[in-house]
Backbone:
């Protein structure tokens, strides 16, 4: 995981926040003034975790529910291991899980061809909620499910998560 | 030559890490911020490689390398991107042609040395490379002359796409390894034999896809009366999480089906919005004045997607001499990457890497482009190829003599 430390950059108040791209199966945290973005969430789940008192924030773009279901070493690819890793990284940067809040977006069930059982989108969202509950981190905003894709923008300054879709106006969680 | 999934995975990671090293040295020298977006290995007709770059104006450097691996490698910058780089090295330097050129050579040399050294380290050998040759022009001008190898028209190409943070320009690293040394190295880094696919079968699969695309194009022509040509066909290999990035974040309209049989998987037919409107109107009995995509356009696209899918799948089934069933098409209208993402996730429950089949078609009559992407189950694809007799590639065309 790459850590972007705003304090090492030239930090004049006028400079726009650093833009950090979070790819599929990646997670990034920041303790500076940054905007974390990720695009093209279909059934993938975006989880934003923010601790305002420590001014740290992070975003993970997970593809599948659980690392236990298959071989894999990339923690950020899965909702459960991705959230655990994100919380650990935020704590390394001074965050405290007791002050953290989470927002979830994505987990759409578009193009779900599974005939029985729940689709990946639904399972990603459930796993996201369950893993956050392990840490007692409240989910304070959600825009999940439906049948459309989403792109996200997390503003580290205030924890706002802006959700954009192709055929809908952006909403702020 | 046999290739196995494990060595393709290893080579993909290696090319990706090499590109990351090269990008890191660029960022360090210029203070600009860039990330390697996607790396993939493609088996493609050598003559088609430059297609993706053909319309642009580019500058870059070429190198030859020799040793355990031999071949050519090219670093390609969009011209305006290169100006940003030159200005960050020498403020105002982009104005001076000689200065701009030598800056591109210098940065290219540093980046590509890192890229090639990464490969040499992995193979525990040394790989020599030539001094950089500066190149500029359109896509075809950027790539080295294809080798005189009449036996093989399909070659492996390693390609990384690197994105400037906050800018819409990208740059590319291409590597064209020579066939024989690559075959030796792949044989050495390979895993167990059962994973291996003989290369000639992969080539046949590519041919098969090409026939499927031609069939799909013929169906479009039949339905719309617009002359349509199948263009490029590629078989690529990438980590599953990179699959959605093969399609951009632009909005697409199209259809998706799940197909069953050996192999099973997903097939997408995608049109950019403008193409969707144009082709749908060509199918409609009455003139429409709207540029916006309406429900009528969408139902025309659904119909078109259906016949293109059937054409494509028929081409496969003929070669494999099996039947391939598919679900009714589902209409999609969304960000390209978000359309592919749930499909990659469904395939990704069983595999870490994926083969991706891409085809494109174009027509000269109207502004129209369509892409077909297939995402087969990797193990089943291997099984299908195992069972495939190479001679059958000729059989997508029905043999009239045999039938009558």
Residues:
């Amino acid at each position: 995981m790459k850590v972007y430390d705003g304090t090492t950059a030239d930090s004049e108040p006028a400079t726009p926040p650093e833009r950090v791209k979070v790819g599929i199966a990646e997670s990034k945290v920041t303790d500076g003034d940054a905007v974390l973005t990720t695009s093209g969430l279909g059934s993938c789940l975006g989880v934003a975790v923010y601790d305002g008192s420590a001014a740290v924030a992070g975003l993970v773009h997970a593809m599948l529910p659980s690392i236990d279901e298959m071989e894999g070493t990339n923690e950020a690819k899965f909702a459960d291991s991705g959230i655990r890793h994100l919380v650990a990284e935020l704590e390394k940067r001074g965050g405290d899980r007791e002050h953290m809040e989470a927002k979830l977006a994505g987990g759409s069930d578009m193009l779900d061809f599974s005939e029985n059982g729940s689709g990946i989108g639904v399972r990603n969202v459930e796993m996201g909620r369950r893993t956050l509950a392990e840490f007692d981190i409240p989910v304070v905003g959600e825009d999940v499910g439906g049948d459309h894709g989403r792109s996200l923008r997390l503003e580290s300054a205030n924890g706002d998560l802006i959700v954009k879709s192709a055929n809908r106006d952006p909403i702020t969680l | 030559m046999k290739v196995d999934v494990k060595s393709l995975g290893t080579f993909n990671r290696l090319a990706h890490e090499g590109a990351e090293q090269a990008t890191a040295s660029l960022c360090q020298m210029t203070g600009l911020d860039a990330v390697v977006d996607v790396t993939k290995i493609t088996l493609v007709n050598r003559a088609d490689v430059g297609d993706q770059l053909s319309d642009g104006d580019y500058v870059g450097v070429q190198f030859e390398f020799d040793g355990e691996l031999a071949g050519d490698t090219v670093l390609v910058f969009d011209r305006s991107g290169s100006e940003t780089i030159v200005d960050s090295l020498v403020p105002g330097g982009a104005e001076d042609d000689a200065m701009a050129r030598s800056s591109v050579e210098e940065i290219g040399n540093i980046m590509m040395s890192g890229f090639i050294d990464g490969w040499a380290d992995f193979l525990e050998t040394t790989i020599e490379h030539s001094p950089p040759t500066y190149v500029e022009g359109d896509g075809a001008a950027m790539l080295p002359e294809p080798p005189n190898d009449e036996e093989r028209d399909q070659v492996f190409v390693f390609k990384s796409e690197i994105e400037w943070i906050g800018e819409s320009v990208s740059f590319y690293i291409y590597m064209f390894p020579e066939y024989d040394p690559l075959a030796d190295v792949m044989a050495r880094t390979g895993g167990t034999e059962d994973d291996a696919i003989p290369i000639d079968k992969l080539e046949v699969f590519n041919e098969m896809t090409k026939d499927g695309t031609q069939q799909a194009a013929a169906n479009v022509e039949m339905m719309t009366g617009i002359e349509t040509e199948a263009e490029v066909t590629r078989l690529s290999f990438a980590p599953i999480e990179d699959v959605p990035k093969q399609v951009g974040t632009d909005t697409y309209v199209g259809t998706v089906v799940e197909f069953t049989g050996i192999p099973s998987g997903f097939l997408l037919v995608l049109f950019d919005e403008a193409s969707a409107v144009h082709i749908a109107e060509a199918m409609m009995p009455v003139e429409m004045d709207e540029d916006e995509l309406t429900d009528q356009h969408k139902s025309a696209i659904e119909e078109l997607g259906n016949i293109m899918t059937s054409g494509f799948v028929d081409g496969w089934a003929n070669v494999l001499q099996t039947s391939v069933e598919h679900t009714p098409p589902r209409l999609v209208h969304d960000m390209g990457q978000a359309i592919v993402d749930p499909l990659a996730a469904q395939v990704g429950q069983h595999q870490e890497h994926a083969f991706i089949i891409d085809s494109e078609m174009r027509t000269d009559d109207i502004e129209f482009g369509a892409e077909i992407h297939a995402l087969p189950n990797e193990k089943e694809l291997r099984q299908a190829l195992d069972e495939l007799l190479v001679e059958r590639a000729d059989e997508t065309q029905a043999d009239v003599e045999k039938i009558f």
About this structure: The interface with chain B takes residues 19-21, 23-25, 39-44, 63-64, 69-72, 74, 77, 108-114, 119-121, 148-151, 166-167 of chain A (CB under 8 Å).
